[in-house]
Design brief:
Layout (H helix, E strand, L loop, with lengths): L2 H24 L7 H17 L23 E3 L9 E2 L2 H15 L6 E7 L2 E8 L2 E7 L5 E3 L2 H5 L13 E10 L1 H13 L8 H9 L4 H5 L3 E8 L11 H10 L9 E3 L2 H14 L7 E8 L2 H7 L9 E5 L4 E13 L5 E12 L2 E7 L3 H6 L7 E7 L3 E7 L24 E2 L8 E2 L5 H12 L11 H9 L14 H4 L7 H14 L4 H7 L7 H11 L2 H6 L2 H5 L6 H12 L1 H12 L25 E5 L7 H10 L3 E2 L9 E4 L5 H9 L2 E3 L1 H13 L1
Parallel strand pairs: 2-11, 19-20, 19-21, 21-22
Antiparallel strand pairs: 1-6, 3-9, 3-10, 4-5, 4-7, 7-8, 10-11, 12-13, 12-15, 13-14, 15-16, 17-18
Helix pairs in contact: 1-2, 12-13, 16-17
The structure holds 2-(butylsulfanyl)adenosine.
The site of 2-(butylsulfanyl)adenosine has 14 residues, from strand 3, strand 8 and strand 11.
Amino acid sequence: MNNQQAKQRVEEISAFLHEQNHAYYVLDNPKITDTEYDALLKELSELEEAYPALASANSPTKRVGGTVSERFEKVPHQSPMLSLGNAFGEADLFDFDRKVKQGLGEADFSYICELKIDGLAVSIQYENGHFIRGATRGDGTIGEDITTNIRTIRTVPLVIAEKGFVDVRGEAYMSKQSFAALNVQRDESGEEPFANPRNAAAGSLRQLDSKIAAGRQLAVFVYGLGATSELGDISTQSERLDRLGELGFHVNKERRKCANIEEVIAFTSEWTEKRNTLDYEIDGIVIKVDQLDGQEKLGLTSKSPRWAIAYKFPAEEAVSTLLDIELAVGRTGVLTPTAILTPVKVAGTTVGRATLHNEDIIREKDIRIGDTVVIRKAGDIIPEVVRVVLDKRPADSVAYQMPTQCISCGSDLVRLDGEVALRCINAACTAQIREGLIHFVSRAAMNIDGLGEKVITQLFEADLIHTVADLYHLQYDQVIQLERLGEKSATNLIEAIEASKQNSLEKLLFGLGIRHIGAKVAKTLAQEFGSMEKLVAADHEDLIAIDEVGDKMAETIECYFEQVENRQLITDLGEAGVNFTYTGKKVDVLSLTDSSFAGKTFVVTGKMEAYGREEAKEAIESLGGKVSGSVSKKTNVVVAGEAAGSKLTKAESLGIEIWDEEKFINEINDSKRD
Ligand code: IVH
């Protein structure tokens, strides 16, 4: 075969295979057998090897991946990738309709409804008919170059019959079937399963090794164009979608033109019912003004178009049995109830615990042990009990009674004025003291590395510490005796405690856990008074003279320093050498919040009941934390689920704070309350 013949054959096979690929993956209508396809692919691959100059970037042989990048390059989008405003019910849709009508005046218009695919937005670009680049949405202006991974997606055509620059926008996703198969495979090879198809798709597109992405069975539904391109003479979104389909793109067929908002609402109701019949996940319906001139007239806000809106389906609910109600006493003495449930899948993750908030909620919803309950994830993150299925209530069921005495110290619980929470107000309550100690050493407070909940509990139970001042008398010989604490960690721990003495006053003030004194107020007080002595001596007038301090807060502060035990504690801390002055040392701004998450770096490992990896990540990030994949000295907290392995061991050896799932959920709930 000469060069010319080879060229001809390569072109012939390539075109044929592109066509077969389209028939198989997009039209779901294969024309040749897998064996025939494979034989041709093999022939092409051999030709390309023999004549390397003939191997084009978009050859069907390139679908299998193979390139490994070091990192994803950033790419600016030619026109921004916007997001959509949300509608959560009919009222929001009527509101959208009203604004559209207002914007369009007398002009006639109609809507087009499309499924909102739950995946991730991608931009797929072509130059003179050839696929040239794929990018993630990124921040909407700059995305990441995932060209080699997009090339492996079979529903994306690599050549199209359209000249010039075309920027196609769509949603990359993984079908439920591929997702399930992938998780079985991961389970077998000991890898962590993905929480849901969206995470699986995102994780796959972010593979630096395109071979891995190629093996992941991703797909893309396209739904639009970047503002810089158009496909000939087209005047509506419906025509545009039809045209994209003709060009070989995978366009979702469950779309409908609607003459008015009532028809739109009917479509949303229909799909709210039918959504689970699909082999891919959808999280709503996108409603667009169909006429492109209408879209142009309505224009954009800074973030999203005025001509479209995303109707979001109501949160997915699940039914479970409430096995028990678990109670925990927090640092401020508040008793928090948690529902222990028969594990059940909700919105992609298995949930075994759910927050019950407080006694009022339990009473209002009449939640009882043994009840069948409906649960959902609040804000799609924190599992909560929505209601009881009364029909299924066992005949012998009794109303749940919160205890009247503290489960830790036995003293009477009280409800302070205007509060829904039940509290233990015994200053000597063991649970509170323990939680108070944990708070004192936490990052936003004294920031003592290596002193997490576990070590504090051990120290406390071994009778080595009762107050926070006792920490400063700990000796190496004492801490080395603690279980699982090696020589290095013990030395580091003593050093970290010693170093914390130098903290600026606000860290100590916050660490004391005075009610209503969050990190921010602590800093103001430290700045204003300059020293602990001055603050202790301050009277009501001095305190309320400060902007952020009102009557109530001033009273709490005065009250705190009037108590004999607290005065003793301050004296003990002073004698131990703890700094009492505001040194103005730069304090991590992000730690100036009561949240246990803000500014901290987390690593999540092992399997949790209520949280998938991505959910945990989202929860942490929504509370201001960062999530990293590997444990290092910079890690602040490791959230360890069941069967956590090497990351946990490493965290332990580095003396990093470790939270189990229960602690994680409690911290989330506490932070949300703040
Ligand atoms: S239109 C100008 N149509 O939903 C914005 N978006 O915030 C154009 N999505 O991440 C979006 N299916 O990727 C549109 N049929 C559809 C969609 C869709 C899923 C995603 C989109 C974006 C989010 C909207």
